[in-house]
Design goal:
This protein is 18% helix and 30% strand. It has four helices and twelve strands.
Length: 193
C-alpha cells in the first residue's frame, strides 16, 4: 500500500512570484502497524490480596452490598480484622466477629461466595460451563489482564500466586473470547462509585 506524503525534511518552497507553496507529495510505502504482544507479569499476588473488599448480594434486598474490614481485631483472633456487610440501597448492616474464616478460591466447590458472611458474590456469571466470578473491581482487572495477555511471565513462587491457581478452563486459548465477554458482563455489573 502506498500513500502520498511529504519527503522527510521537506520544507515549503518559495515560488518565483513570492508565494509560498508546499513541496509536491512523494509516494511512500505505508508500513503496517506492528501489534505488540500483551504481556502479563505474575507479581505473586495471592487471592488474599483482593480480600479487602467483597461485592456481595445483600441478604435483605438482593442488591449490591460490600464487605469491608472494620480495622478492629476479632477478640478471639487478634490478627483478623472484624468485617462489616453494608448495603447502600437498603442500609442493611451486619458484623462478622467469628474467627472461623475459610479462604476460598476457584478450586473450592462451595461456589462464588465471600469468606465471611457466605453471601453470593455480586460479580458472577456463567462462562464456559462454569461460574466466572470476581471479588471486586481490582480482582476483575487482574483477571482481565491475565486472560487478555498473549504472553505470561510466571512468578518466582508461582504455585502460591493467584495466576497459578486459576482453573484450566480460564487459561485455555480457545476459551479466551468467551471468558473476556464474561469479564465484560461483570464489568457492566460494577456499582457506580
Amino acid at each position: 500500500m502506498w500513500t502520498a506524503a511529504l519527503p522527510p525534511g521537506a520544507a515549503q518552497r518559495q515560488a518565483g512570484d513570492g508565494c509560498v507553496r508546499a513541496a509536491p507529495p512523494v509516494m511512500m510505502p505505508v508500513r503496517p502497524e506492528v501489534k505488540m504482544a500483551k504481556r502479563f507479569v505474575d507479581d505473586g499476588r495471592t487471592c488474599e490480596a483482593f480480600s479487602d473488599l467483597f461485592l456481595v448480594q445483600c441478604p435483605r434486598c438482593q442488591g449490591c452490598a460490600s464487605v469491608r474490614p472494620l480495622h478492629k481485631p476479632v477478640p478471639s483472633a487478634p490478627h483478623l480484622p472484624m468485617r462489616r456487610l453494608t448495603c447502600g440501597t437498603c442500609a442493611s448492616t451486619q458484623e462478622w466477629p467469628r474467627a472461623d474464616i475459610q479462604p476460598i478460591g476457584y478450586s473450592i466447590h462451595r461456589g462464588p461466595v465471600d469468606w465471611y458472611f457466605n453471601r453470593p458474590l455480586w460479580l458472577q456469571t456463567p462462562c464456559c460451563g462454569h461460574v466466572l466470578f470476581a471479588y471486586n473491581s481490582a480482582h476483575l482487572g487482574y483477571l482481565e489482564a491475565f486472560v487478555s495477555a498473549d504472553l505470561r511471565d510466571v512468578a518466582r513462587h508461582h504455585n502460591q500466586s493467584l495466576a497459578s491457581r486459576l482453573p484450566q478452563w480460564m487459561q485455555l486459548q480457545h476459551n479466551h473470547g468467551e471468558v473476556l465477554r464474561g469479564l465484560k458482563r461483570l464489568q457492566a455489573r460494577l456499582p457506580e462509585a
